[in-house]
Each structure stands twice: as C-alpha cells, then as structure tokens.
Amino acid sequence: MSQLPACPKCESPYTYEDGAMLVCPECAHEWSLNEPADAAAKVYRDANGNELQDGDTVTVIKDLKVKGSSLVVKVGTKVKNIRLTDEGDHDIDCKIDGIGPMKLKTEFVKKA
C-alpha cells in the first residue's frame, strides 16, 4: 500500500484518495498529486492589497458593464460569499442580487 502525502494546507496525515483527487478529512482541502505545490499557495488580493478568502464579502469599486447585456454593476454593490477560482483571467465566482451569477476580477473589488 502506498503512502499518501500529508495535507499541504493543515499538514494532516489522514488524507485519502477520491478518484483523481486527494482529500483532507480535517480541513476539506482537495488537491491533485499532479498539482504544483505553489498553485495551492496562490494568494488573491483586492484593489487595496488585502488578502481575499472564499466566503468573503467584497464591494465593487467601479461601474462594471455586464457583457452581452445592458445591465451595469454599480459602484458600492456588495457581493457576499465569493468563491475564488484559478480559471481564465477572472478570479472571483459570485452571485450578484438582481443580476445573477458572474465572474469578477480582484482588481475591481475591495474587501468589505
């Protein structure tokens, strides 16, 4: 039986395999064996340089046009429960009241 690596987030030795991913039962962190170690350590910062985490509430600092629509996300709009992603050039997945699901860049938000 092969020895699985400890969790890179909390150093728990109780990791297990779930398909192609490894999972930590203590902190619920998921990662791939092929994932580089520095990818898990990526730090997301808002326009003011504050570190962002999953579940944070942020405020939009600039009017943002919604692509393919006539809607505009106004300055001061609060966005609750953000999810940070590493897909494409947008870093935040969120749901904005009155508009729906969106992707935002961290450079256009500040931590609330």
How would you portray this structure in words?
It comes from Pseudidiomarina atlantica. The protein is mainly β. It is built from no helices and 13 strands. Strands 1-2-3 form a three-stranded antiparallel beta sheet, with no helix packed on it. It is elongated, with a radius of gyration of 17 Å.
Provide keyphrases for this structure.
YjdM, single chain, 112 residues, YjdM_N, three-stranded antiparallel β-sheet
Chain-wise SSE layout:
Blueprint: E1 16-18, E2 21-23, E3 30-32, E4 44-45, E5 51-52, E6 58-60, E7 64-65, E8 72-73, E9 78-79, E10 83-84, E11 92-96, E12 100-104, E13 109-111
Antiparallel strand pairs: 1-2, 2-3, 4-5, 6-9, 6-13, 7-8, 10-11, 11-12
Helical coverage, percent range: under 10%
CATH superfamily of the largest domain: SH3 Domains
| Biggest beta-sheet profile | 3 strands, antiparallel
Work out the number of β strands.
Answer: 13
What is the alpha-carbon Rg in Å? 17 Å
Principal-axes geometry comes out as elongated
H/E element sequence: EEEEEEEEEEEEE
CATH class call of the largest domain: Mainly Beta
The number of distinct structural domains comes to: 2
Estimated structural class: mainly beta
Put simply, the count of helices is: 0
Query: How much β-strand is present in the residues?
Result: 25-35%
Strand order of the largest sheet: 1-2-3
Task: Please outline what is shown here.
The chain has 112 residues and is mainly beta.
